[in-house]
Every structure is written in structure tokens, then in C-alpha cells.
Specification:
heterodimer; A: 107 residues; seven-stranded mixed sheet; 11 strands; B: mainly beta
Chain lengths: 107, 115
């Protein structure tokens, strides 16, 4: 199985800061990575697909980059509603796998 | 709008079977793929498996001997059965539309395995 390692596990920031969340794959996966946001007591929400493709309805402050083994989710000027857990997921080969998540919290 | 809703018991005894239903509205399950995902206490997420538009299935090898995903196209529902559950199957179970990524999710159902 492809292992996805997300870092950091927790990121403490102040609203208005810009942040980058990392996801590293155990082998090359081209751009077959997707990013989700999950708030407490809610279902995950797809933010970015195929590393950098935007999703309708998602604020433009969310962007993704990377290919191969290293991927980044960037949030430009964090807003209060962004404090939640973020996951990456690969669709390069079955079984699909998820990273362990990065919790974005208020400093 | 595509909507999914899981239903099923919230408590299952060890060694018994867990059965969940995902009801889909706004889109036919005879198109695309439809998956089950679970989130354990502590945030780990695991893909369980999926059923395709044609009814073919793929399962996570870690669960393959214990799971079955089926569907009823007349009701636009698909189902998860997980056999011989243990406490390690305690999790929140989600169904989702799967297009390599998961773009529509149900609200999730928390399942506890306990005697």
C-alpha cells in the first residue's frame, strides 16, 4: 500500500497568516493526490483534486501543488472557519489511502 | 443535488456482523463508483471498498475476507456488510461518491463494537 505522511501533525496559526501543509507519498504517484477538510462533527469536504485542480465552491485561498512524492496544500491568509483537520488521499493505486491528517488550530 | 445518507445500528456486538445502508438521491448509482470509508477514533481514515456502476466491487485487502458491498438499483441504495467485527472496527462509517476522489459524502454513522 502507498503510505502518505502528512506534516506537521498540528499547526498553530493566527488568522491572516498564510500556511503550507505537506503530504509525502512513499512512492511516486504523479499528481494522483486529493485534499480534504474536515471540521468537527462534519463530513470531509473535497478541497483540491489531482494535486492542483480547484473545486467549484471552494474559496480561492486554497491551492495545491506538487507531483511525484511531495505535495503541498496552501492556505492564503487563514480565516477563522479554516481551523479544522486536513487530509490528503491518493488514487494512484488501490487500495486508496489517506494521510494521518494535519490539525490547523488557533494560536 | 447529490445527497447520500448512511443508516444502520450504532452498536454491534463482537463477532457479529455490521450492516449499513447508503441511500443516494439526486444521482443514479448506475453511474460512477460508490465507496465506503471509515474514520477511527484518533483521526485515521481507511478506504473500505467500492461498488461500480456495473456492480463490480473492489475491497481493501486488509478487510477483504470480511466485507461485502452490494446494491439495490431499484432503491438507489448500496450496502456494506462487515463480518466478525471486533472492537477495532469501532469507527465512523461514511459512504461517498467516488471519482478517484470523493466529492459527495454522507453525514456518517458512528458504529461502536461492544458487548
Amino acid at each position: 500500500d502507498i503510505v502518505l505522511t502528512q506534516s506537521p501533525a498540528t499547526l498553530s496559526v493566527t488568522p491572516g497568516e498564510s500556511v503550507s501543509l505537506s503530504c509525502r507519498a512513499s512512492q511516486g504517484i504523479s499528481t494522483s493526490i486529493h485534499w480534504y477538510q474536515q471540521k468537527s462533527n462534519e463530513s470531509p469536504r473535497l478541497l483540491i483534486k489531482y494535486a492542483s485542480q480547484s473545486i467549484s465552491g471552494i474559496p480561492s485561498r486554497f491551492s495545491g501543488s506538487g507531483s511525484g512524492t511531495d505535495f503541498t496544500l496552501s492556505i492564503n491568509r487563514v480565516e477563522s472557519e479554516d481551523f479544522s483537520v486536513y487530509y490528503c488521499q491518493q488514487s494512484y493505486s488501490l487500495p486508496w489511502t489517506f494521510g494521518g491528517g494535519t490539525k490547523l488550530e488557533l494560536k | 443535488e447529490v445527497q447520500l445518507q448512511e443508516s444502520g445500528p450504532g452498536l454491534v456486538k463482537p463477532s457479529q456482523s455490521l450492516s449499513l445502508t447508503c441511500s443516494v438521491t439526486g444521482y443514479s448509482i448506475t453511474s460512477n463508483y460508490w465507496g465506503w470509508i471509515r474514520k477511527f477514533p484518533g483521526n485515521k481514515m481507511e478506504w473500505i471498498g467500492h461498488i461500480s456502476y456495473s456492480g463490480s466491487t473492489s475491497y481493501n485487502p486488509s478487510l477483504k475476507s470480511r466485507i461485502s458491498i452490494t446494491r439495490d438499483t431499484s432503491k438507489n441504495q448500496f450496502f456494506l456488510q462487515l463480518n466478525s467485527v471486533t472492537t477495532e472496527d469501532t469507527a465512523t462509517y461514511y459512504c461517498a461518491r467516488e471519482l478517484m476522489s470523493f466529492d459527495y459524502w454522507g453525514q456518517g454513522v458512528m458504529v461502536t463494537v461492544s458487548s
